[in-house]
Amino acid sequence: MMKKHLRHILSIVAAVFLGMNAFSQDVPDTLSTSYLDGADAYVCNDEKIGPDDMGSVEYLVVRNHEVRMRITFLRFDITDNPRFNPADQAYIGLYVNHAQKMGDAFREISVYGLTDDALDNWDETMLTYNTAPGLSAAALADYSLVESKTSYLTKLTVPADTVGWIYSEPTTEMDAFINDVNKNHMLTFILLVEEPNTGDEVRFDSKEDTDTLRAPILHSMEPIGIAEQKSLSGVRMKQNFPNPFVGTTTLSYYLKEAEHVELTVYNMLGAKVATLVNEFQETGEHNVNIDVDRLKLSPGIYFAKINVGLASQTIKMNICE
């Protein structure tokens, strides 16, 4: 409880110092499966286990290997969240804790959306292959999606021996799914490996893990309404991608006219920790890379602030361990 109050106080200090009003909202700009009625679980259709066994609640698994088929389900609650109304360049983030012995240099994980709102009320404590929404009966060590209730959205790529955050590719299909399937404010995603392989399984942290900050996340860029309003001032800075991030991330902004630009980074206490840009720049799109090691930034919340003439804009960034 003390930590929660401390974070709130630091947020207020940063908001006052940076002249922001983003902290007046009670909803997060990055959702995790632990938020409101979110959920996560994986199911098995293994020759050794069968289709009725429930997966561990401490981690999530995807696998497609000879005798083992394992599929992960994620549910996000976007109730009254302006970040996802509408969504823009949305993506899923997963914290990989095991990707060893894959046999290949990388593994691709397909992400499907559950298009039938009536099926979003699944219970993670009772989920099995035979009860999972969007799946139909299949031979052991195989799977079958119900085409009328699922839709391919995007993919995640997991390099071999990875430990840390990975992110799905932003796609128009992903944004359309979030914007169209929101009658009950619930979004269910199905993650699976479609190509059989000889490697080991890939595991991710779930919301039940001891480190809740590593629960699966869903993030969308800045809402269009806000972006349009700020673009009138002569500058539009997009949300950094990826976010949250480990190691590096990229900031992009567009200048309507040639102008002097100052781009700086502040910590939660409002102290300036880095100046990324301080020069005259031409009109158009500009990209700036943020390297955590080079800037010597510790994990935590930071704010990137851009000043162009009399206009300014600030975004929040999250550096993970």
Query: In the CATH hierarchy, what is the class of the largest domain?
Result: Mainly Beta
Number of helices: 4
Rg calc: 21 Å
Structural shape:
elongated
Helix content: 10-25%
Pfam families: CBM96, Por_Secre_tail
Protein name: T9SS type A sorting domain-containing protein
InterPro entries: CBM96, Secre_tail
Keywords: Secreted, Signal
Search tags:
single chain; 321 residues; mainly beta; Immunoglobulin-like; Jelly Rolls; 2 domains; eleven-stranded antiparallel sheet; four-stranded antiparallel sheet; 4 helices; elongated; disordered N terminus
Descriptive report:
There is one protein chain. The protein has helices at 2-18, 172-180, 224-231, 292-295; strands at residues 30-32, 39-44, 59-65, 68-77, 91-98, 106-114, 150-159, 164-167, 186-192, 202-205, 217-219, 235-237, 248-255, 259-267, 272-281, 284-291, 300-308, 311-319. It is mainly beta and 321 residues long. The chain folds into 2 domains: 2-27 and 224-319, Immunoglobulin-like (Sandwich), CATH 2.60.40; 37-219, Jelly Rolls (Sandwich). Strands 1, 2, 3, 4, 5, 6, 7, 8, 9, 10 and 11 form an 11-stranded antiparallel sheet that branches. A 4-stranded antiparallel sheet has the order 15-14-17-18, with no helix packed on it. A hairpin with a 2-residue loop joins strand 17 (300-308) and strand 18 (311-319). The longest helix has 17 residues, at 2-18. The protein is elongated, with a radius of gyration of 21 Å. The model is unreliable at 1-26 and 222-232 (pLDDT under 50).
